[in-house]
Amino acid sequence: MAKQSVRSTLPRPFALHWGSGRIVEEATYAGQHHEPSLQLMEFDDGSLAVRFCYYDHAGRFQRSPLIVSNDEVAGLKKALAGAPKLRALLRRMVR
User: How many domains does the structure of the chain reveal?
Assistant: First the structure.
């Protein structure tokens, strides 16, 4: 059975070609094949974005589409309990 993963300390910086900022909240789950992650990104201008991504089990960020199984959805739901701002933003997507 997969267990929840602990990523590095937050906030942590990110830089994209259109802007930079900090990952301020993150929900991850160590699944069988990868570690899906939902990240709340706060840009330097104060705007927010959600990144749907994943890491391999060695902790390397992957640039492929995120695919999650039913088990991983349940694990991410539990992980979101510790990310209230991210959870609230995602809730707006489904209401």
Answer: 1
